[in-house]
Amino acid sequence: MAPIHNEETGRRPESFDLVAADYNLYRSPYPQEVVDTVIALSNLHNGGRVLEIGCGTGQLSVPLARHGIALLALEPGPHLADLARQNLKRFPNVHIEVSSFEAWSLPQQKFNAVVSASAFHWLDPNIRFSKSAEALSPRGFLTILHIHHVSGGTPGFFADTQPCYMRWGLSNNLSFQLPAPDNVPGMYPELDRLPEFRPVTRRYFEIPMSHSTASYIGWLRTDSLVNSLNDRARQGFLQDIERLIEEKYNGQVVRNFVYEVIVAQSTS
């Protein structure tokens, strides 16, 4: 899909809370090797104090809590936060707070790490790095997890979806192609130049994801681009994709992703 820019499509972070049940069901937990890398590079340990920005329904929060981390997770969507609390209720060291990062007041006690998975790009770029640095204890870590859509997966499937994106106004380029897995642009290059942080460490993991028709359509129902459509157009788009998977791909497709883990240690 050649996504049109956010200001043209009406992508909104608030859209995730409107589909919280689908988000909980169809947004997969992060792969274990990615979680292990987040924990290792951030020097997280049992009892460590961590701030998570934009926890969703706990896709990263749950594995962090299993590691014995004392977690304060911010989630601006109240329905997402309610589901996160249910998913994390067995962990007494986890607290979910309904708030945006921008509106949240920094506590006096600092954090060993500030972590954000698939949410940091939604934050105000004027304060997201500086406020994260303020929240960190000396030599603490800012860790960002970003997922890149890349080429690979079921041959022909991505190209076959492009007319659907064009038909329903979600793309303006029929020939759009995803980047190769070894050619994804590193996110947040400005982080390397900020005086609040030491040089950045980056790790990349190419991981395919298998989907049934139902799980792929469920995943698309949580997509902010898809949810920029009105009800009729959204339903039409999803029906087109569902028909394509069922009729041409026998109800099973694979999409390919690169998980980028970005870690920077505070200089203070």
Question: What's the layout of helices and strands?
Answer:
Blueprint: H1 6-9, H2 15-18, H3 20-26, H4 32-41, E1 49-53, H5 61-66, E2 70-74, H6 78-87, E3 94-97, E4 111-117, H7 128-135, E5 136-150, H8 157-167, E6 201-212, H9 213-220, H10 231-248, E7 252-265
Parallel strand pairs: 1-2, 1-4, 2-3, 4-5
Antiparallel strand pairs: 5-7, 6-7
Helix pairs in contact: 3-6, 3-9, 8-10, 9-10
Structural class: alpha/beta
Assembly annotation: single chain
Any idea of the CATH topology of the domain at 6-151 and 179-208 and 257-265?
Rossmann fold
Q: What is the helix/strand order?
A: HHHHEHEHEEHEHEHHE
CATH architecture term of the domain at 6-151 and 179-208 and 257-265? 3-Layer(aba) Sandwich
| Largest sheet entry | 7 strands, mixed
Counted beta strands: 7
Descriptive report:
The chain is an alpha/beta fold. It has a domain at 6-151 and 179-208 and 257-265: 3-Layer(aba) Sandwich (Rossmann fold), CATH 3.40.50.150. Helix content is 32%, strand content 23%. It is built from ten helices and seven strands. The chain has a seven-stranded mixed sheet. Helix 3 packs across helix 6, helix 8 (157-167) runs antiparallel to helix 10 and helix 9 runs antiparallel to helix 10 (231-248). The chain is globular, with a radius of gyration of 19 Å.
